[in-house]
Write a structure and sequence with these properties.
Length: 82
């Protein structure tokens, strides 16, 4: 069973925030995939799956997404409220 690593830190990945931030940054899914996944062929499909919530990112992927989109962790993975 795959664990949600962000939940261990009291955070939840927000797929819609990823989409909004990417669009605001003016880059395509393909461009983001090239940055995050080092030119991996299946990258754009992976970004699409992240944006639609089909899959969740690893901690390393969230870090790379934040760096590529010049945003904070709070933007893409806000803290869970109690």
């Amino acid at each position: 069973m795959k664990r949600n690593c962000l939940a261990l830190f009291g955070r939840r990945f927000d797929p819609e925030a990823l989409r909004r931030t990417r669009l605001w940054s003016g880059i395509t899914q393909s461009q983001l995939a090239h940055i995050v996944y080092d030119f991996e062929h299946s990258g754009p499909k992976r970004i699409e799956k992240l944006e639609t919530g089909v899959t969740g990112p690893s901690l390393m992927t969230v870090k790379k997404l934040c760096e590529a989109l010049n945003c904070s962790l709070d933007t893409l993975a806000p803290k869970l409220t109690k």
